Amino acid sequence: MKHYLYIGALTVSMTFACSSREPKEEPKAPINENEVSLTAEQAKNIDLKIGQVGFGEINETLKLQGRIDVPPQNLVSVSIPMGGYLKSTKMLPGTQVSKGQIIAVMEDPQYIQLQQDYLNIHNRLNFATKELARQQELNASKANSDKTLQQVEMEYKNLKVEQTALAEKLKLINVNAAQLNEGKISKSVKVYSPINGYVSKVNVNIGKYVTPSDVIFELVNPTDIHLNLNVFEKDLHKLGVGQRVMAYTNVKPDKKYQTEVILVSHNVDGGKSEVHCHFEQYDKSLVPGMYMNAELQFKNRKVQVLPEEAVVSFENKDYVFVEIATRKFSMTEVQVGEVSEGKTEVATDLKGKKIVVKGAYSLLMKLKNTIEEE
């Protein structure tokens, strides 16, 4: 019986001893979510290449939008200063006109009255001129008083003022006072085109009465059209008079138009300002109101650059992969600038660092897949 108990105690003791020797679970090392490693075979499969930042020239391009506009001196609103009824016109929107061409005929009784008043004053002035000469002769011989001569002189001057004023009023309705006589009084007057160009708007019809403030026609001289571009306030300092701007339409993006900056507005409204450009060559297919795109290229700048494929984007940020050990890389955020001819401007200082210049996208995919699996 004692021997049996001894064996049992030994068995229990051995059981506890074995339990105490079970291996403990080692704590896992923290995972760096921005680091990724490759095997030699994986690096070969993605054709991984390592390089360093270079320094080169890059063209900075500012993309703008706007529309074709006409300067005030090339956009004319035609009206009749004294009003009247439209008797006749052959004008339609788009009709080509020449300076001095008759574009409408107006009629109104007040035109007759104005011509009549001028001729009456003209006749009275002729009489006053002769009377003044007669009174001057009489005054020289002391046959009349100085007061009488002064009254005649005042009458003459008043009539002269009235004649000049009426002649200017006749000019407003395109009537030459010098050619007016009793047999040429007319109820109709002609309206002439003040510029070469085309009719953009016709606002009246035959028989309609127009007031002095009504615009009958709108005329455009398109030979000096401008491109009016919108520029954000942050880019305003980059532009200056004399810079070249390449413009094109959405309809024909391959057809480029050379323009030159002639005016930079210093008025900012809603975070934007305006830049006016002059077309170097007139093209009749370009019409006011047409929307256009434009690109302004600045002089070449020496900057730090990497191949375009070396930079990857993730969650609206830009990154490169920096080698920190053999085939081990750290995803590093960078600030980038312009992209030109396959090169990307990098504002972040990467001098002396080994950068993945080919295969960066594959590293990004492996890094994000690894994180998801873990």
UniProtKB/TrEMBL annotation:
Gene3D superfamilies from the UniProt entry: 2.40.30.170, 2.40.420.20, Helix hairpin bin
InterPro entries documented for this protein: BSH_CzcB-like, MFP_Cation_Efflux, RND_pump_MFP
Transport recorded as keyword: yes
Domain CzcB-like barrel-sandwich hybrid: from-to ranges: 76-220
Coiled coil: 142-169
Entry-linked Pfam families: BSH_CzcB
Keyword hit for Transport: yes
Superkingdom as given in the UniProt entry: Bacteria
UniProt keyword terms in alphabetical order: Coiled coil, Transport
Membership in a protein family: Belongs to the membrane fusion protein (MFP) (TC 8.A.1) family.
Name this polypeptide is given: Efflux RND transporter periplasmic adaptor subunit
Gene source species: Pedobacter helvus
Lineage: Bacteria, Pseudomonadati, Bacteroidota, Sphingobacteriia, Sphingobacteriales
